[in-house]
Amino acid sequence: MALTPVVLKFATALRRFWRRRDSYDVVADGVMVGRIFLSPTAPKHRPWMWTSDEYKGRPPLFGYEATREAAMAAFAKSWRRQDKGLRDKGSQREK
Fold first, then answer.
1. Inter-CA distances, 12 with 3, 8, 61, 87, Å
2. How does DSSP assign 23-43, residue by residue?
3. What is the CB neighbour count within 10 angstroms for residue 76?
4. What's the whole-number average pLDDT of the chain?
5. How many secondary structure helices (H) and strands (E) does the chain include?
């Protein structure tokens, strides 16, 4: 089972509801699996929030980071860790 690639897309649909200039959808297999955005309720020193939705057995997770790039890295690290966990579970079932 290969790693599922994810793509960051500018979130235009939700921008009209509240300051959405800094909001991105994370997409895998054509499905939105998470978001990265500036959160007005986040700690001041970590304003970027990342969230992952439940997807193909992955639990939803979230975190706060100082920059968008750090939020992207944290999301990617979480995604890879979960991908590895799902691959390990699959290989255990095959035994």
1. 27, 12, 23, 33
2. EEEEEETTEEEEEEEE-TTS-
3. 14
4. 79
5. 1, 5
